[in-house]
User: What shape does this take?
Amino acid sequence: MSLHSRTKRLSVPQLVAMKGQQKIVSLTAYTSNIAKLMDPFVDFILVGDSTAMVGYGRSSTLDMSLDETIAHTRAVVSSTRLACVIADMPFGTYQESPQQAYRNCAQVMARSGCDAIKLEGGAVLAETVEFLVQRGIPVMAHIGLMPQYVNVMGGFKAQGMNDSTALAIEADARAHLEAGAFSLLLEGVAEAVARRVTEISPVPTIGIGASPACDGQVLVTEDMLGLGGEHVPRFVKQYADAGELIRQACATFAEQVRDGSFPQLKHCYGVN
Ligand code: KIV
Assistant: This one.
């Protein structure tokens, strides 16, 4: 079991200092029980806006509110004590202006107790990142495949697959680094691009469908537990089939209730 040796919650500066020292491990969580289970193993927990799809069964990550983000992030913060907790800012709550972003990020941080926020966007958001960082909000910048931009990108496609798009992703990375992002999350990008960005970046890169060269890796927990949908992206490795386990437990429960073998007297009160 690969437990970390921490006794206190990992801070953002400690997370940054892990670059070049040890790989950074992350998973998503949005509920108390799952967060508590992963706390001894991961360095940071991402309360992703993927919650909209895997938690609420919605068709995209665009449909996530600020109040939902705050509620799920609070649940994760209050049930963990070791992992750094990063909240994913929902679509439409930060793209309008640095001021709008500050108002909403500050609310998420103050009301949930999380350590940092993540936002999706290329160089056009660097001004916002700088505004936030200078006002006390640590920012992880998510570039490459950005699910909140699915309608502009025309689907979930790997990014940086030719020279010009590869250079554009590198330019996005440089803009966010200059703006003060404490980490770059690289999703669904060509391996060589993720490797290159990791080389030029003084802060950790976190990959998902990116490269083993990234400073850390994140997966959506439901995907790696076999609880995701029917389509499993190429970048997902399934570490357990919890879906099958749950199906079997439900089937056995249903069978036992119907045939009268559950409950037994030992499950009842007032009998010895
Ligand atoms: O919302 C999320 O879970 C994410 C991961 C895919 C990185 O942003």
Notes: The CA atoms of residues 27 and 65 lie 21 Å apart. The chain has a mean pLDDT of 97. DSSP finds eleven helices and eight strands in the chain.
